[in-house]
Amino acid sequence: MTRILCWLAALLCVPSTMAAESPLNLTPGATEISQQVYDLHMTIFYICCAIGVIVFGAMFYSMWAHRKSKGAVAAKFHESTKVEVIWTIVPFLILVGMAIPATKTLIAMEDPSNSDITIQVTGSQWKWHYKYFDQDIEFFSLLATTQEQIKGAEAKGEHYLLEVDKPLVIPTGKKVRFLMTSDDVIHSWWVPAFAVKKDANPGFINEAWTVVDDPGVYRGQCAELCGKDHGYMPIVVHAVSQDDFDVWVGEQQQAAAAAEAEAQAALTQSLSMEESMALGEQVYIARCAACHQPNGAGLQGVFPSLLKSPYILGDISNHIDIVVNGQEGTAMQAFAGQISAKEIAAVVTYERNAWGNDTGDLIQASDVATFSGGGSAPAQAVEAATEAVEQAADAVVDASEAAVATAGAAVAEATEQAQEALEDMTMEALMAKGEQVYMSQCVACHQPNGQGMPPAFPSLVGSPLIKGDIKDHIDIVLNGKAGTGMMAFGAMLSDTDAAAVVTYERNAWGNDSGELVQPAEIQAIKAGQ
């Protein structure tokens, strides 16, 4: 019996002693919390090995010592209270022994408090957007692997599909808090070395954190099947010293200022057709080819062809609109915040003249900037009011008494425009705007028909909240509801958007309350808070 147990122990423990070196095992990672996860994993693994030795040892011994050839006769007993108690208590103690270290590790993993830096991570098909809350820095991070490598036209690089154009940069020794969300489908931000894997869900915020002690480059990728190019969403994190991080922050802020200056200068420049086509091709291959294909043929039924498309051959303003603002209900993103007006003008020019489209249209950055004033009428009024106020303020500072009088008139005009932006809207206008807001912000949880997904996401059809006090309805839209998945949209929606979506919810799907909320009411409620 002793020899058999020793043999089994050796047989089962050899793999466990080699586990730390196995390429198939978890790695200790690069952070304290990842080391805790690794230690927990190995502890459970060793417990499983011990259970295996005992269970299989007893089984093999019983088969050997009580075999029929030795004349063994089965004992005749029906039940044993002692055995029942033992095989209930022992597994219970084993599970408790596993649960204690597991609970400690899980609690530590879910504690993002006392962070030094907060970074919002937004997933979209198929790129990551990073926004540093305290440093006023934000950028998109895209796959840097070339199409030639992907198609096999050239040799794969060392970091094939795990390289990006702009990596995330964090300082060592600092607690970095991540806020995960998405602007389209479900993604998952996963960096194995940090023991961080969190889903990025549209309409929700998930939290994670890390503290990296050693400088280095750490790689990961989207771990959720988010679409056809799911494998093209790598994550690269550069951990650097605090001094190097401060230098990087300064460089990014200078680069942002330079980019803004360049964008302003581009508004007065005119590119030739050749220059615009060359730049447009670069932008198209980097930003558009993944969906619409390098030859513009798209994927039938999924991504429309751009060859002789009505958008391409039709009105230029509609073409610019869909590139700038995207198209709701489709995978077409809004590129207004991702690329400059110069690049938008170039890619629109390229699409209208490549692959045999040959419209001869040449779009300049100034055309895009002029169009970008588009949007809802209230939004235009508010934007115009803001510009007028800024111009008036500059005039007050720099001008003479006559200029001051002019500035005062401009301020009055700006104030009037701002008030016009908050004027009462008709039910039709509110419902149309409300449906747009609902489909972009609420539909992921409450469904297009308002039925929700009880009990996680309540139905809005005949809901007591929808049928009840309108102030309670506005409150939950602006401030969310603690302990549920309902986010606070007060900072995300304009006064017009908030008024419209509340009106829409109270009158859609047969609710038919007849009640409408005006932007001025939302503004008053926000001011009262």
Structure description:
Pfam families: COX2 (PF00116), COX2_TM (PF02790), Cytochrome_CBB3 (PF13442). This is Cytochrome c oxidase subunit 2. One of its GO terms (molecular function) is cytochrome-c oxidase activity. It is a multi-pass membrane protein. Its EC number is 7.1.1.9. Strand 1 and strand 2 form a beta hairpin. The chain has 5 domains: 100 residues, Helix Hairpins (Orthogonal Bundle), CATH 1.10.287; 146 residues, Immunoglobulin-like (Sandwich); 105 residues, Orthogonal Bundle (Cytochrome Bc1 Complex, Chain D, domain 2), CATH 1.10.760.10; 45 residues; 102 residues, Cytochrome c-like domain (Cytochrome Bc1 Complex, Chain D, domain 2, Orthogonal Bundle), CATH 1.10.760. The protein has a 5-stranded mixed beta sheet. A 5-stranded mixed beta sheet has the order 4-10-9-6-7. The radius of gyration is 31 Å and the shape is globular. Helix content is 49%, strand content 12%. The protein is of the alpha+beta class. It contains 19 helices and 10 strands.
Tell me the name of the CATH class of the largest domain: Mainly Beta
Tally of DSSP helical segments:
19
Main beta sheet, described?
A: 5 strands, mixed
Taken in chain order, the helices and strands follow as HHHEEEHEEEEEEEHHHHHHHHHHHHHHH
Q: Taking strands numbered 1, 2, ... along the chain, how are they ordered across the largest sheet?
A: 3-2-1-5-8
Radius of gyration: 31 Å
Give start-end ranges of low-pLDDT stretches.
373-386
Going by CATH, the homologous superfamily of the largest domain would be: Cupredoxins -  blue copper proteins
Which CATH architecture of the largest domain? Sandwich
Q: Into which percent range does the helicity of residues fall?
A: 40-55%
| First-last Cα distance | 77 Å
In CATH, the topology of the largest domain is named: Immunoglobulin-like
- What kind of oligomer do you see? single chain
Tell how many strands the DSSP assignment holds: 10
* Number of spatially distinct domains: 5
- The assigned structural class equals alpha+beta
